Amino acid sequence: MTDIRSLRTARHWVFALHADLVFVTKYRHTVFTDRHLARLEDSTPAVCADFDTEPVDFNGEDNHSLVNFPPTVAPWKLVNSLKGVSSRRLRQQFPDLVAHYYHANRLWSGSYFAGSGGTPLTVLRQ
User: Fold this and answer.
1) Contact 67, 57 (CB under 8 A)
2) Full-prediction pTM beyond 0.85?
3) For the chain, percent helix, then strand, then coil, each to nearest 5?
4) Calpha distance 58→42 (Å, rounded)
């Protein structure tokens, strides 16, 4: 059962929607260092605020985020914005990422995972 303090309200509804978002780097390369992950974590709240969503948890090593979102937000739109903004900002700030992905000219793979309702860790690892 959801804790009453975690419920969000709007004019006509009460909701507690959470999504586990996992992004995959292009070619599944492990390229992030601690400084990359810190910048990635800093850019997430700004994008979430644009969508009226709340970042709840961030695990940079697995490119995993837990986000609380309203029913008016399509998860794919939020994911596209998070991936686009983070890719642009990371590549602007860190030339080593640009050099690593010179031929692909993108940081993230086109795929992602979005799950809700307590996704098992085995699924996230796959």
Assistant:
1) no
2) no
3) 45, 25, 30
4) 10
Q: Which of 59, 63, 57, 58 shows the shortest CA–CA distance to 25?
A: 63
Query: Which DSSP helix (H) or strand (E) runs through 123?
Result: helix 121-125
Confidence of residue 123 (pLDDT cuts 50, 70, 90): low
64 three-class SS: strand
Q: Considering the chain, what is the average pLDDT of its residues?
A: 81
Alpha-carbon torsion, ordered 80, 123, 118, 61, to 10 deg: -60
Q: Residues of 58-94 as b/e, b for ≥16 C-beta within 10 angstroms?
A: bebeebbbebbbeeebebeebbeebbeebbebbbeeb
| Chain segment 101-119, per-residue pLDDT in tens | 766 677 888 888 888 866 5
